[in-house]
Design brief:
Elements (H helix, E strand, L loop, with lengths): L4 E2 L5 E7 L3 E6 L2 E8 L1 E6 L2 E6 L3 E4 L5 E4 L7 E7 L8 H6 E3 L3 E2 L6 H9 L8 H18 L2 E3 L8 H12 L6 H8 L3 H12 L3 H19 L4 H7 L5 H12 L3 H13 L1
Parallel strand pairs: 1-3
Antiparallel strand pairs: 2-9, 3-8, 4-7, 4-9, 5-6, 5-8, 7-11, 10-12
Helix pairs in contact: 2-3, 7-10
Length: about 270
C-alpha cells in the first residue's frame, strides 16, 4: 500500500479488517480506529501510541499518521472514516486542533460509544440520518473527553513528514524529485532513498498513486470530463493518465466510471 492523500466516496466509510503496517499518510476525513482483537500501534508526529483490545483511537483531518503491528496472532480493528462536513459546529476546531493523546483506553470508554462505532458498520447507506447521529455522538464524546492541542504542536519536522506534506500540497502541479529536494533543502539522492525505504516505491509511483486516489474520487462523484480530470490531478497528458490508471486498475478511467455508475443503478 502506498501512502496517499486519501479520498473516500461516502460521508461515512468503514473497514473491518486485520490491522497491518500502513506507512505515513493523511486525508481529509476524521479517522476512528476501534480494536476488536489484539493490538495496533498508532503513530502521530514523533509519538507511537499503543492500542489494546477495546481501546479507541482518533485522528483528526490532515494529520499525518501511520500504523504498525508488532503483536503476533490476530489483530483486528474497525476503521471508520467520517467526513468533517457532517459537523458544521466543529469545523473550525477540526481545522486548528487535534487530540494531545489520540487514544481513549477501554477503561475510560463508555459502552454507548462502542455501540455507536459498531452500529456504523451495520447501518444501510440509505439510513443516513441514523448514521449521522451515531457519528456525531462519537465526535461529541471525543471533544468532551479528550484534551485538544494546536495541530502544529504534533508535527514531526523530519524528512518523511515533510515529504508527505509537500506532495499532498503540490501533487496537482508539475512536481519533480529535484524541485522537491531543493524546496526541502535535502539531496535528491537522500530523498530518493527515503521513498524506496519508507514507501517501497520510487518518487514517480508515489506521486501517481496520490493522483489516482484523487482521480477515483472524482470519477465516482462527479461528471467532470476525463480531459479536465487528467489536468486537475496533475498528469501532463491524457495518454499518461490513461496508462497509469490502467496499470493500477486494469481498466481506463472511462471504463472505471461506467462500471461504478452501472453498479449504482442496480
Amino acid at each position: 500500500m502506498y501512502p496517499a492523500y486519501e479520498t473516500r466516496n461516502k460521508e461515512i466509510a468503514y473497514e473491518y479488517k486485520d490491522s497491518v503496517h500502513v506507512p505515513p499518510h493523511l486525508h481529509e476525513a476524521i479517522e476512528v480506529v476501534y480494536v476488536i482483537k489484539g493490538s495496533v500501534e498508532l503513530g502521530v508526529g514523533k509519538e507511537l501510541y499503543h492500542l489494546n483490545e477495546g481501546d479507541l483511537g482518533v485522528v483528526f483531518p490532515n494529520i499525518i499518521h501511520h500504523y504498525q503491528v508488532f503483536a503476533e496472532g490476530e489483530n483486528t480493528a474497525i476503521y471508520l472514516f467520517i467526513e468533517p462536513t457532517l459537523f458544521t459546529g466543529f469545523l473550525e476546531d477540526l481545522k486548528l486542533y487535534c487530540p494531545e493523546n489520540p487514544v481513549i483506553t477501554k477503561e475510560n470508554l463508555q459502552s454507548d460509544i462502542v455501540s455507536a462505532v459498531k452500529m456504523l458498520t451495520k447501518i444501510d447507506a440509505e439510513k443516513s440520518l441514523m448514521s449521522h447521529a451515531y457519528a456525531q455522538m462519537i465526535l461529541a464524546y471525543v471533544f468532551t473527553n479528550v484534551k485538544l492541542v494546536e495541530k502544529d504542536s504534533v508535527k514531526d519536522d523530519n524528512l518523511i513528514y515533510n515529504a508527505v506534506s509537500y506532495v499532498a500540497t503540490n501533487f496537482r502541479e508539475s512536481i519533480s524529485l529535484e524541485n522537491m529536494a531543493q524546496d526541502l533543502g535535502v539531496s535528491k539522492y537522500v530523498l530518493s532513498r527515503m521513498f524506496a525505504k519508507t514507501f517501497h516505491c520510487n518518487f514517480c509511483k508515489y506521486v501517481n498513486k496520490i493522483r489516482l486516489n484523487y482521480a477515483v474520487s472524482y470519477l465516482e462523484n462527479s461528471d467532470i470530463s476525463i480531459t479536465e480530470l487528467c489536468l486537475e490531478c496533475g498528469f501532463d497528458s491524457q495518454r499518461t493518465f490513461n496508462r497509469v490508471f490502467k496499470e493500477e486498475y486494469k481498466m481506463t478511467p472511462r471504463e472505471y466510471r461506467y462500471h461504478i455508475h452501472a453498479g449504482m443503478r442496480k
